[in-house]
Amino acid sequence: MTEQQTALDVALEQLRIVSEKINLDPGIHEFLKHPKRTIIVSVPVRRDDGSINIFMGCRVQHNDARGPYKGGIRYHPNVTVDEITALSMWMTWKCAVVDIPYGGAKGGVACNPKELSLKELEGITRRFTTTLFAEIGPYKDVPAPDVYTDSQTMAWIMDTYSQYMGYRVPEVVTGKPIIVGGSEGRSEATSLGVVFCIREAAKKLGMKLKGSSVAVQGFGNVGWNAADILHHMGCKIVAVSDTKGGIFNLNGFNPRKVFEHKEKSGSVVGFSGSKDVSNQELLELNCDILVPAALEGQITKANANEIKAKLIAEGANGPTTPEADRVFEEKDIFLIPDILANSGGVASSYFEWVQNLTREHWTAQEGNKKLEVKMVKAFNDCYDISKKQKTNMRNGALILGVGRVAEAIRTLGFWP
Ligand code: NAD
């Protein structure tokens, strides 16, 4: 985010815009501006050299009108309670948009995983889980991976929680390794959902995907898998990036080869036959499709006018500010917002939870088919609203998501 506009400012501004559009009861608007519960904890960890470090951790439970809280856990040095609050609000709308019976939450630990050993990360994860033990649970709050956490992190959370309960509770987290109750296809699900949305948008725009050029910012779980799937569909992946910088090749790369290069060297930078570009330049490249899949606040008033892509699919949460949204609307750039575009991750997490609760195990094909049905329906619901209300896709998705949450709140009432 810019210094002036934090992720929370953006989330609140989006809520204000949509509340106006749907004539939301001012009391419900006020209620939705605040999370139901914010838990801030300190996470002490003994480092490998024997010293003790204390990290700030938090879990923000925004709203549970539609079901148990659901949301990822992020490990990043810039984690703040405000950032996690914004992300928890977006989770509430997202679960409603893709129509799964969850509320919204998010968690984080302000640490730099790149400077921590595996043992230290395990220590942080198990201590964080212990501290949150009373607040999470399969019917209460179900965490998942996010930036710099992965299936191993989820296995540690599940094991710690299960040790306390005295029996295995796989349904307490999603995004686990398959061997301990994970779902086939979960690690690619967010990206597959992004691609289903891109495919549906291309149909609406009369755009041919085969041969389209794509730039992807962020080459982690979401970015790399999206690049790989789009490459297999015949798109040309012309640019990708990570924290160290970006690479560009007009003729396109094979993302799998870039992945292998990153595995060996630690970055996409230096991939053979590529030209270096900065993360900023990547966003402004002359390409058909742009997938921001890194962090919040990447596309603002300052660079929105320079963006040339015809279609933007937000793999990341909160990459675009409301001012940049307005620029895209004026320039007729079609943007698929985060709460729709990356909702395949939480939809697939929901499938994992259902399988855990019923002790079933679906094939990847079964899961992907169900995911496609959910994503196509969510995309078309948002699209139809945006057309009917003569607004952009962000507002279409927010009208659907916030509207469903508000309706649930009204139906449940305020008690006592
Ligand atoms: P990840 O940790 O796997 O990868 C993050 C990637 O972004 C890394 O390649 C990192 O180098 C890169 N990156 C970080 N800061 C950057 C910057 N300033 N510029 C360019 N690249 C940068 O994380 P992820 O799970 O892929 O998550 C990425 C985004 O997608 C986040 O916004 C996350 O909240 C969102 N998201 C993830 C999921 C999921 O299932 N993992 C689901 C929904 C949304």
Can you give a write-up of this model?
The model has no long low-confidence stretch (mean pLDDT 97). Helix 6 (186-205) packs across helix 7. The chain is built from 15 helices and 12 strands. The protein has helices at 7-21, 26-33, 81-97, 118-132, 151-165, 186-205, 221-232, 255-265, 279-283, 301-304, 322-331, 338-341, 344-358, 364-388, 393-412, and strands spanning 37-46, 52-63, 69-75, 104-109, 141-145, 213-217, 236-242, 245-253, 275-277, 289-292, 311-313, 334-336. The chain is α/β, with parallel strands linked by helices and 416 residues long. Strands 9-8-7-6-10-11-12 form a 7-stranded mixed β-sheet, sandwiched between helices. It has a 5-stranded mixed β-sheet with strand order 1-2-4-3-5. Nicotinamide-adenine-dinucleotide binds at residues 145-148, 190, 217-223, 241-243, 279, 293-295, 315-317, 342, 345.
